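Take just one protein record:
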Amino acid sequence: MRPLRTLAPACLVAALLLPALGLGADRVVMFESFTNTSCPYCPASNADLADLVALYGTTEPIQAINVQYHVWWPSSADPFYVANIADNTAATNYYAVNAVPDLRVDGSSTSKDLVEAMNDRLAVPSPLTIDVTHSIDENCQFNVQAAITAVADVPASGLIVRVALVEGHTHYD
């Protein structure tokens, strides 16, 4: 199996955490952005977040990742919404998103500047590390394995693991 960083153009997102000394691990900040291709305010917001993730999420150690969800308004014909209605709708409903653009930082809403919000979260060590490996066969079938290790105290219940496969870049006219 090869390390995840060799998977391009897609990357597996599972709140990838890198081991560190001390009471926790280095944190990778996960942005979850909500958008729609017909939203007039979304392109600028999407570009700002893409610039931040390009700066902090493409070199080792990775410090930021983005999972983007497309909502069904102002247009339900958004091709990214239509391509994955179930997951887009589930995330939108889970966070009760009612306007776009919208953003969650490590699962929470924020009104802070993107860099400030990211730096606030980076300052909090993660109690978990996640080691992800993958293989791809000749038919482009993916096999992904994740080993999650507690490196500090974690709650005894209520933990949920979600895995997402995201594209690094999609050209859209």
Remarks:
- Strands lie at 2-3, 10-13, 29-35, 64-70, 102-105, 108-109, 128-136, 142-150, 164-167.
- DSSP finds four helices and nine strands in the chain.
- The CA atoms of residues 14 and 163 lie 5 Å apart.
